[in-house]
Amino acid sequence: MRLLTFLLFFSISLSQTFSTYDYVGSRATAMSGSITSGPSGEWSIFHNPAQLSDLDRSIITSGICEIYNLDFLSYSHFGLANNGWGINFEQMATEINNKTLSKESVLGISRGIQLYKDRQSILQSGIRLNLYSYNLGKSAGLEGDGSAGINLGSGSAQGIDLGFQGILNHKYYIGYYMQNVISYIDSPSLGSNLPKSFSIGLSYKPYQDLLTSLDINQLSGHTDSEIRFGIEYQVIESFKIRTGLQSNPNRFSGGFELSKLNIGNNNLSIAYSFLTHHVLPMTHQFSISLDF
Description:
Blueprint: H1 2-14, H2 26-30, E1 59-66, E2 73-82, E3 85-96, E4 99-117, E5 121-135, E6 154-168, E7 172-185, E8 197-207, E9 210-219, E10 225-236, E11 239-246, E12 251-263, E13 266-275, E14 283-291
Antiparallel strand pairs: 1-2, 1-14, 2-3, 3-4, 4-5, 5-6, 6-7, 7-8, 8-9, 9-10, 10-11, 11-12, 12-13, 13-14
């Protein structure tokens, strides 16, 4: 019973309805979440939506991980992007002994818009509407295994993300991303707003094969900020390596991506990444994407 109670409150503390997860996808995990600014890609579906305005191809991407390498805490994501639009679906569940203690999911619809462009500079903006849902499963009950437990409830919430990015000479990037800047939770017992976070990112691309990124992330209501730094290097045309660092807490990350695997006229990419934790085991992330 104690174990089920612990897992229930542990899952609530990490679930999307009550908090945010900034490491969706292999690139975000490998670069410690420092992807607020920079070129567009499949990660733009889940993060700064302003980058979608520069995405001129269609992409399908999907991935799965066990957060902190805990087999009862699974996280999966799926995304689709086309011509500046993006659709994302993410789900996290806490399961033990084939019983679901909690399940969180979000469906998002994004749009990136190019506000201004000349020979040297580009100004982008983006918006995302998130539709959250949650189910807290059953309590442990008298037997302690959930068989005679009571339903703890379910509900939904809505949130809006906003993003901006400026680009100079395709070398210098500055981005600003606000999560759940406007939000509402349908269940009054859980408050009326989702957690808000704000991040500003600076990226520098001195030449085509190298990108460095710096992010400062702030969760609303908290006095401490997280500083994140990431590097992406294209070793050869079809192989990239990534690494990152984060403070507060101190974390280290890394990974690689194997791309341009031809399937007909489409390009398949496979990526792996890891992210350490100062107390818990590291998280391993696997992602796959298809350009068409």
